[in-house]
Write a structure and sequence with these properties.
- By secondary structure, this protein is of the alpha+beta class.
- The protein has three domains: 113 residues; 66 residues, no CATH class; 179 residues, no CATH class.
- Helices cover 70% and strands 8% of the residues.
- It has eleven helices and five strands.
- Strands 1-2-3-4-5 form a five-stranded antiparallel sheet, covered by helices on one side.
- Helix 5 runs antiparallel to helix 10 and helix 6 runs antiparallel to helix 7.
- 21% of the residues are buried.
């Protein structure tokens, strides 16, 4: 606050002096208003300067943002260009690597072929070896430098040789190539221009897969195969017995109606003659009913025939249930053996694990192969027994209650 503004209150506090005091107050007011007008003018000037500075700063900021956007666009273009150049360089490097690999491979094959040409000397001698099935055999051996072929009469004794003792490995030799090898072994090499050559040296060392026979399949299953086969044989015997019983248990058509007609006429002799020597369950029941139609005798005859109808059915059901359980037991045993091998040798050699896995899968497969037909045979036999049991109960009801009112 200015000193002039402070004089006004002091003048007001002073004793009044008329016109002089009023003049002094007016002068002080005029001075204050002049100072206020000057302050407002300075304030307007300061505000205008501040606005100009703000506008200038905004202009610089806009120019800076535009320059930043241009720099970012240029940087993105440079990054895209650099990426394309790097990709092109990578493709060129990959092409160069592939070309170098092909050149190295060609050099290796050329060197091997040159070595073979220098050491090529064909001669034949008999030798002992193991055929594709692993069995000992004797066959002519054709030598061509480091290459050896077995040329036997059987396809299992024809092929590339490797190892010590010698064994036949690699893919089978096709008939034309085998015929060419036999010509060379017979001393007729003139005109032979092609032989099955293993350039890499790896085919002859490959394991030749033995043919998968039934005996090999059973041996792969281990000791649990034999009880499953025993169950299969027992189930087959039960099924054959059921077929025999079913074939014999066929009553002549209309036998029951004829017997009941004779009994209705009171001719027991004729009815007895019809069922004499009956081999079916219905005939045996009617034979009992001709002589004794009491409920006790009929029920006893029905009980006997029920036992005959159910003979072997429960045993067949047991076989069908036990066979897959034995297969599962073999599976568990095979997996335990596999884990024992893994604990000793690890998982680096799959051939060591194949025995336990083969036992696990073979026993399960064999158990299901026995169980499924046994279940189907059991269902068919049960259905046939129920049908015959219904015929027997109907005949028994007619024997006990000839009038049809029921026992």
């Amino acid at each position: 606050m200015s000193p002039t503004l402070l004089l006004l209150p002091l003048a007001l506090l002073a004793p009044p002096d008329g016109v002089a005091l009023r003049a002094a107050a007016l002068d002080a007011r005029a001075a204050a208003e002049a100072e206020l007008a000057d302050f407002r003018a300075r304030r307007v000037d300061d505000h205008a300067a501040l606005v100009r500075r703000v506008h200038a700063a905004q202009g610089r900021l806009s120019r800076a943002r535009a320059a930043r956007a241009e720099a970012q666009a240029a940087l993105e273009d440079a990054r895209v260009t650099a990426t394309r150049r790097v990709d092109a360089a990578g493709e060129q490097q990959a092409a160069l690597d592939a070309l170098e690999a092909r050149l190295a491979e060609a050099d290796g094959v050329s060197e091997r072929l040159a070595r073979l040409a220098r050491r090529a000397a064909v001669f034949v001698e008999p030798g002992a070896l193991h055929d594709r099935r692993g069995r000992p055999a004797t066959a002519p051996i054709v030598h061509l430098g480091p290459l050896r072929w077995a040329v036997g009469d059987h396809p299992a004794t024809v092929g590339l040789l490797d190892g010590a003792p010698l064994r036949i490995g690699g893919p089978p030799i096709d008939p034309p190539a085998a015929a060419t090898l036999r010509r060379v072994a017979a001393g007729e090499a003139a005109g032979v221009v092609a032989l099955p050559i293993d350039l890499s040296g790896e085919m002859a060392g490959a394991e030749a897969g033995a043919p998968w026979t039934v005996w090999r399949w059973l041996r792969a299953g281990g000791p649990f195969v034999w009880p499953i086969l025993a169950l299969a044989l027992a189930a087959l015997l039960v099924v054959l017995d059921r077929i025999r019983v079913t074939a014999r248990d066929r009553a002549p058509p209309g036998l029951a109606d004829a017997v009941f007609a004779d009994l209705a006429r009171g001719d027991r002799a004729a009815a007895r003659e019809r069922v004499a020597g009956a081999r079916s369950s219905l005939g045996r029941l009617l034979a009992v009913g001709v002589d004794d139609r009491s409920p006790g005798a009929i029920e006893a005859a029905l009980a006997v025939e029920d036992l005959r109808l159910d003979r072997g059915l429960r045993l067949l059901a047991v076989f069908a249930a036990v066979a897959p359980l034995l297969g599962l037991l073999g599976t568990v045993s095979g997996m335990i053996g596999t884990f024992d091998v893994i604990a000793v040798h690890g998982t680096g050699e799959p051939r060591l694990l194949s025995g336990g896995i083969a036992q696990a899968l073979t026993t399960t497969q064999l158990g299901l192969m026995v169980a499924v037909p046994a279940l189907l045979a059991h269902a068919v036999a049960v259905r046939g027994a129920e049908r015959r049991r219904a015929d027997l109960e109907a005949a028994a009801s007619r024997l006990v209650d000839p009038d049809g009112e029921g026992p």
